[in-house]
Specification:
Distance between the termini: 25 Å
Protein name: Outer membrane protein
Low-confidence stretches: 17-28, 106-129
Mean pLDDT: 80
Subcellular location: Cell outer membrane
Helix content: under 10%
Keywords: Cell outer membrane, Membrane, Signal
Number of domains: 1
Main location: membrane
Strand order of the largest sheet: 1-2-3-4-5-7-8-9-10-13-14-15
InterPro entries: MipA
Order of helices and strands: HEEEEEEEEEEHEEEEHE
Length: 281
């Protein structure tokens, strides 16, 4: 249940407008120093690419935000502005890592061994895609990332985030680069975002390594390497008035070969979508 709540909070940020640009019912910007709450009700899903894991339905997306002079909260994301100018900013940021949310959270699924008392005779490291028996994901701890974000605001928006694991789960880091463009037409807001995320080998090894034993007592160990995951996100919102919006969002992440070649995967991408009605309070 806690893992599902985290996923709902994470994705509800994606179906919202960008920081400091969400209009109220009169079309004005949210004032600095104000809290607001939101609730989206609709239909959506997170397509889990891990083997044997169910897709995660998205029906209700809670949302809470606060924008201060320097400090802001956007659901599970926090930021503190070090330098701010009309066209760019530099911030300290923290956000939930998405990788751990895909894994089962209640128990581990272990591979059965035929003769646990017999010592391992050899050990091979597999780093490329080969024909391997199915392996199911085990429980993995969730992690929280923190670091620095540089943002540019202009005809298009650009940002670079460098984040490291501050929860001491995998001790890895990731770097995200994205470009986005917003377009407003009457009561409709469109946004397209393209980007890529670099994940360090420590991060991918913790979540995506795979190990199992076969009949002849030979242990195979799939070792994930550093990865680059490109992604695209499209969203739209229509202002119905009185703080009601129709909003939709679709995001697709193409998984690096070193990730989806892991025997715990059965798909090559991570798709998330949602369409519904949002109410701001």
């Amino acid at each position: 249940m806690f893992r599902l709540l985290l996923i709902l909070l994470l994705f509800s940020s994606a179906v919202s407008a960008n920081k400091n640009t969400l209009p109220d019912s009169n079309g004005t910007l949210v004032p600095v120093g104000s809290w607001y709450l939101g609730l989206s009700v609709g239909v959506g899903a997170l397509k889990n690419p891990l083997r044997g894991q169910d897709n995660i339905p998205l029906y209700v997306l809670p949302e809470f935000r606060y924008y201060g002079e320097r400090f802001s909260v956007e659901n599970l994301d926090v930021s503190f502005t070090l330098y701010d100018a009309p066209a760019y900013s530099l911030e300290l940021v923290g956000q939930q890592n998405m990788d751990g949310l895909l894994f089962p959270g209640d128990n581990r699924r272990l591979m059965a061994s035929f003769t646990g008392m017999i010592p391992i005779r050899s050990r091979d490291v597999v780093e490329t895609a080969v024909e391997l028996p199915p392996l199911y994901p085990e429980h993995k701890s969730m992690s929280y990332m923190a670091g620095v974000a540089a943002r540019y605001f202009g005809w298009f928006d650009a940002q670079v985030l460098a984040l490291t694991d501050v929860s001491k789960v995998h001790h890895g880091y990731e770097i995200n680069l994205s470009l986005g463009k917003q377009y407003n037409w009457k009561n409709i807001n469109f946004e397209a975002q393209f980007g890529a995320t670099y994940k360090s080998s420590k991060l991918t090894e913790y979540y995506y390594n795979g190990e199992y034993q076969e009949l002849f007592y030979q242990v195979y160990n799939y070792r994930a390497d550093s990865a680059i995951n490109p992604y695209i996100q499209l969203s739209a919102a229509y202002d119905l008035g009185n703080n009601y919006f129709v909003s939709g969002n679709v995001r697709n992440i193409w998984l690096d070969d070193t990730i989806h070649h892991s025997p715990i995967f059965e798909d090559t991408h991570l798709l998330t979508y949602f369409i519904g009605i949002k109410k701001l309070f």
